[in-house]
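Hi there, hope your week has been kind to you so far. Do you reckon you could talk me through the fold, stretch by stretch? Thanks so much in advance, here it is.
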Amino acid sequence: MTRRGGLNLQAQQQRSLDAQAELQQAVQAAYASGTHEIPLDAIDATGDWNPRGSAGDEPYSEPALAGLMAAIQEYGQLQPILLRPHPDQRGPHRYQLVAGWRRFHSRRLLGDATVLASVFTFRDDQLDALSTLENTQREELNQFEVVRGVFRTLAGQLNVAPEQLPSLMSRVLKTGEDPHDLQDRLKVLTSASLSTFNTKYARVLRLRPEEIRAVYARNLPPTVALELVRLGERAERSEFLTTAMHEAWSTRTARERVNEVLRPEQARPAVHEVAARVTRQLKPARLGKLTGHQQAKVHALLTQLEDLLSR
């Protein structure tokens, strides 16, 4: 019974992962289909899958959206909202808002007549999950931006390149000496500890420009980009970036694919394993139990090995 229950749980987890991958692929397909300036009055924004729907209009008031509105005014709308053709073609709206409520309402409050959007035929069963995914990705991007901002700020305060910060942090952690007051400076900027920042977030500094662009365009989750950093300068890194965007990789998929590349390098060569086993057997007590013939044979083999290694 326990085994059957475990298998059922594994099957459920796999179905969940498959559904998430399918949803991410649908989102990428929507973005790949292109963007259009769609009239706001052609969009129905009343869907009950809105993740903030229970909060009424408060999340979409002008004070709540002031920061986003300012950013749109300065830089334009960088990320399209997601729409689908309205299921009720006889109604007053051509499209249904699927994700991007804050951007939609920001454009409305700015007095714009249109909003940048991508259109895709999302299914009904994908709508709730899609809203959650969109919200999660925005939170991940916010955290990503915070981490990069902290590194930039620290680098500016210390007048060093951001890439130098991990070595400075490591020195503080190893020696306990903190001549630059890194720990105090970090406490002002974030609640994360110096150890966490050095071990968990330092990979942000090794992202390539194309990976950063993919993250900000939301073609790649920040966590996937950070997994690719582990590949260093290997040729697979560029290939994996393209594949990850095309196939909408999850963090787990990225980690598994990167591990497949790194595993041969991480594994010890077979000769190391044999040498370790033999060394454990070369004890006086163990050798003393051998017959004279066996000892002579071991001596001959060790002499050959010594000669080989000394060349």
Q: What stands out?
A: The chain has a mean pLDDT of 80.
